[in-house]
Amino acid sequence: MTTRKDIAQKAGVSVSVVSRALNNSGYVEASKKERILRIAEELGYHPNPVAVSLMTQRTKQILFYCREIRNAFNLELYEGMVKAAKEQDYLVMFHGSLDFKSIRSTMVDGIIFPSEAAAEIYQNMVGKIYRLPAVSAAFGNTFYYPKGMPMIECDCWKGMELIFQYLRERGHHRIALVMPYDISHEEIRIFAWKDQIQYELKKDEIDTYYLGISKKSLPGDKRVLEFGEEREEGDPYIAENFWGKGRLAAHIFQERRLDATAVICFNDEMAMGFLQEIQKLGYRVPENLSIVSFDGTFVRRYGNPILTSLSLQPEKIGEKCVEILLKEINKEPFKYKYKLTPRLLEGESVQKIKR
């Protein structure tokens, strides 16, 4: 393995001069520096990353805390992070353990969270006693807002307004909501849907049109898996992921005999599960029922029909998270809150109806 001493001997200079040239840290005559860099390349010199990190106090690595690595939204977040990090010669690593304390022994310069909730848990557990530069994606859930942490937000409240505007223009007024939580859950999409639907439904109808997958709302003997619990063989309707929960929501929709002409789904994967199961139950989409989802990921294109979805621009969120995190790491000026505007990606899952 080539060392700096080897380069120094061939260049006829001291090791300290080689170090200044390679690190670009201190004066070295231009012609001499050029010769040192050329020799280093010829000899195939690669600095030891651990030694470099000890000297610079930088690992050139950032961590993406993400438990759901199979979620399409998180994958697109990660793609954006990788793209932006590469431009700054950084790597992005995954970390999915609930043991936040293990982050202390991980060699990274900063951390990115996929939501306000994850950021709040981290900050409450270790963030106050272990100050690592951090930034989080956000979706309008301001009641989770961790103090002192930059947020890159795509506003789901505004997104719900855009979806309702789109559906109303096409004649839809009885609109159900498919969610992976109970109606009492503090999720911005639930609050925004209630705010919009209050003009269309009577107060005592709202709970009926909310299709939440929780222990309180499952049809028949269907159930949600507990964390770490194994799936029972032969039961195709146990909800173990967004897809499975979407399938369960289709059965709730059928059992309640709703007259809704459209449903809004929590994300593309839940919408795909709902779409496939509701079609098996005899509904035609969009002829009998229109579907709109959140996220706008690549998953929507695999629907038959292709899903209409509100893009929260995950790749752009990922890029911006890295940009702001690196500014924080490098002690450069940055804003603590950035907003991105959601946009509707029209597919084939919404039908215009006459009223």
From TrEMBL:
SUPFAM superfamilies: lambda repressor-like DNA-binding domains, Periplasmic binding protein-like I
Classification via CDD domains: HTH_LacI, PBP1_LacI_sugar_binding-like
Residues covered by the HTH lacI-type domain: 2-56
UniProt cross-references to SMART domains, sorted A to Z: HTH_LACI (SM00354)
Keywords: DNA-binding, Transcription, Transcription regulation
Pfam families attached to this UniProt entry: LacI (PF00356), Peripla_BP_3 (PF13377)
Record GO terms (molecular function): DNA-binding transcription factor activity; transcription cis-regulatory region binding
Keyword DNA-binding among UniProt keywords: yes
Designated name of the protein: LacI family transcriptional regulator
Organism in which the protein naturally occurs: Candidatus Blautia avicola
